[in-house]
Write a structure and sequence with these properties.
- α12 packs antiparallel against α14 and α13 packs across α16.
- 36% of the residues are buried.
- The chain folds into 2 domains: 184 residues, P-loop containing nucleotide triphosphate hydrolases (Rossmann fold), CATH 3.40.50; 227 residues, Gcn5-related N-acetyltransferase (GNAT) (Aminopeptidase), CATH 3.40.630.30.
- It is elongated and about 90 Å long.
- It has a 7-stranded mixed beta sheet, sandwiched between helices.
- The chain is built from 17 helices and 14 strands.
- β9 and β10 form a beta hairpin.
- By secondary structure, it is of the alpha/beta class.
């Protein structure tokens, strides 16, 4: 330390602080076991030594990857930098696990995200990169979920725990918050108590001890062991506080922007149910059941034509899941299939069906007890419409597409025809509805239709029983 200033000398005199430079022991040397398929949580108040211990683990274990050091190209869409060499469903699963379950976020650039979303994106990229490397080396994260809403932190902890078990990763997290422990279910908890003290609880091995000066290792390098005991939690910790209540069509307004199809076309709504946190708490999910379209080929296949040309049976015995939306903070935690499983029997119909664009990537409907019947391919008429647009130099995926729909009569006619035919085959009233829609709404609906390859699901009351 250089020569003391008047102010530092005054502080030293007032409080009896030694001015000479000296080493400060952050934490006594402590052995922290690291194993594949397990999570180590370093917890304790700020300044207790968590970050120093994490840095020592990074230095000690070759191949360790710190989330905060992961670079994320600013101009690239998020989905292009998460497991680019893997199948798209794997990339989407990793993003959802890390709290980025909205399709709209997947196509944003890193610079377009909030601070909380940037942390989640870095975490997802780090997991994807680490899965390609040495899985025995630890994946490290300081200030884990510190910038997030605590509900989101618990959801990410719950999902990460499942991912670690499934991919046999070794993960070390540092956090001052202990409210995540119930959902994270770490195998080892290292509690930093301040003044160089650390208490190790090895839940997998079933013992705890305090750090002592003769323990020479800050961390043991990752051992090639399979995890013991401590399975991931079957349900997220706050599910017991959730209530399912009857809702109304207007309740969907708050959720419409969270759905990848940001339109208000719900058809002829029959019943709505909401998933609420406590009696007067925030709504975390919604499912909208509507009257079903009169004819669907895969429905006829699954029911041997029992509904074909029988609108009376369709109206009496069948409903369709028109929307299922879970708050982005808690996606991937099983709340979607929980809400479906609990509410489908309340409809009073023999069958419930669903056409799900996310069916390729999310098994929520199978987990709710629905049968996956098949998948629709893009229709020939929609493919022809896209080809016709491209012949006149219009790209439906471009930013200028809305302007083309607005200013070019031929483009609007092509787009309107596709949207009108879809209305006619699902909810009816296509001609009048298209006539009053804005170019922005038409363009958005058209884009959603031309790439749609929905999976058809069917729930049968007898089968569920």
């Amino acid at each position: 330390m250089g020569r003391a200033s008047v102010r530092t000398a005054d502080i030293a005199m007032r409080f009896g602080i030694e001015m000479a430079a000296r080493k400060v022991t952050v934490v006594q040397p402590t052995r922290i076991p690291l194993r594949r398929g397990q999570i180590v949580l370093l917890t304790g108040p700020s300044g207790s030594g968590k970050t120093s211990a994490l840095a020592e683990i990074e230095r000690s274990c070759a191949g360790g990857l710190l989330v905060q050091r992961v670079s994320f190209p600013a101009e690239a869409a998020i989905i292009n930098r998460i497991a680019p060499s893997e199948a798209l469903p794997d990339a989407i699963a990793t993003l959802t696990c890390c709290g980025l379950g909205e399709a709209g976020l997947w196509v944003r650039t890193f610079d377009g995200l909030s601070e909380g979303e940037k942390f989640r994106a870095r975490l997802a990229r780090a997991i994807a990169l680490h899965c390609r490397g040495d899985a025995a080396a630890p994946l490290l994260c300081d200030e884990f979920c510190a910038v997030l809403h605590r509900r989101a932190a618990k959801a990410i902890s719950f999902n990460l725990r499942k991912l670690v078990a499934r991919r046999n990763l070794c993960v070390v997290l540092a956090s001052a918050q202990e409210d995540i422990i119930a959902d994270l279910r770490p195998h080892v908890v290292a509690r930093f108590l301040g003044r160089g003290r650390c208490e190790i609880e090895d839940r997998a091995a079933g013992f705890s001890r305090r750090g002592r000066p003769h323990d020479v290792d800050v961390a043991s390098c990752a051992e090639d062991e399979h995890p013991r005991g401590l399975k991931p939690a079957a349900r997220i910790s706050f599910i017991r506080r959730l209530r399912i209540e009857a809702g109304a069509k207007g309740d969907y307004d708050a959720f419409s922007r969270m759905h990848y199809r940001a339109t208000d076309e719900l058809g002829f709504v029959d019943k709505v149910f909401v998933l609420r946190e406590g009696r007067d708490g925030e709504t975390l999910g919604i499912v909208v059941y509507s009257h079903a379209p009169l004819e669907l080929a895969l429905r006829n296949k699954a029911t041997d034509g029992w509904f074909s040309r029988r609108p009376d049976r369709v109206n009496r015995c069948l409903r369709i899941v028109r929307r299922l939306v879970i708050h982005p903070d808690v996606r991937g935690c099983g709340l979607g299939h929980h809400l479906l499983r609990k509410t489908m029997p309340l409809l009073g119909t023999q069958y419930v069906e669903c056409l799900a664009g996310m069916g390729e990537f999310n098994p929520v409907f199978e987990k709710a007890g629905m049968e996956r019947v098949g998948q629709y391919e893009a229709s020939a008429s929609r493919q022809a419409a896209v080809a016709e647009l491209r012949r006149i130099d219009v790209d439906p995926g471009s930013r200028e597409f809305v302007l083309h729909v607005c200013r070019r009569r031929r483009v609007r006619q092509i787009v309107a025809r596709v949207v009108r035919d879809w209305y006619a085959g699902t909810t009816g009233g296509g001609e009048a509805r298209v006539a009053r829609q804005s170019p922005e709404f038409l363009a958005q609906t058209f884009r959603g239709l031309i790439g749609a390859r929905p999976v058809y699901y069917l729930w049968r009351r007898n089968a569920a029983a």
